[in-house]
Amino acid sequence: MLAALTIRPAQPADLPAIFDIYHEQVLQGIATFDTAPRTDAQQRDWFQKHPANDYPAIVADHAGRIVGWAALSPWSDRPAYDRTAEVSEYVHADHRGRGIGRQLLAAIIDLARARGRKVLLARVVDQNPGSVRYHERVGFTTVGIMHGVGEKFGRILDVRLMEMQLR
Length: 167
Fold this sequence. Notes:
28% of the residues lie in helices and 35% in strands. It is globular and about 40 Å long. The chain has a 7-stranded mixed β-sheet with strand order 1-2-3-4-5-7-6, with helices on both faces. By secondary structure, the protein is of the alpha+beta class. It has a domain at 5-118: Gcn5-related N-acetyltransferase (GNAT) (Aminopeptidase). The chain contains 4 helices and 7 strands.
């Protein structure tokens, strides 16, 4: 774990760092099924969809540098799903394996509870067994696997839908 790591609400000024981290996975990884970096306008739109009082976005700040982020997003726009949120988290490639993701996930789970969410969902690429194990270790369980729903870098990818009950 990094000393002097601060988990705090994301600010508009954090967007370049947030999306530098995200775009690494867009261009080189399979953690997201986005295939092109988001424009500045799309980044601002994303931020507007994450109000702190409802679906917050948070960052891990180490000595003034954003080294990871997490966010809650609506699972669906249908009102009956308001008790449920999808969780996303990304850690800078140079800082993985240091417990940052675990701290971000713990913080975003606490925020989900504080905002009345009862269920968290995560879509995890099944071909990334480390991510599957990580989510299992923090309390997510598999709901099912969506076979062959994605294709990236010439690979057909399955998505494991995982849930965490926040009761």
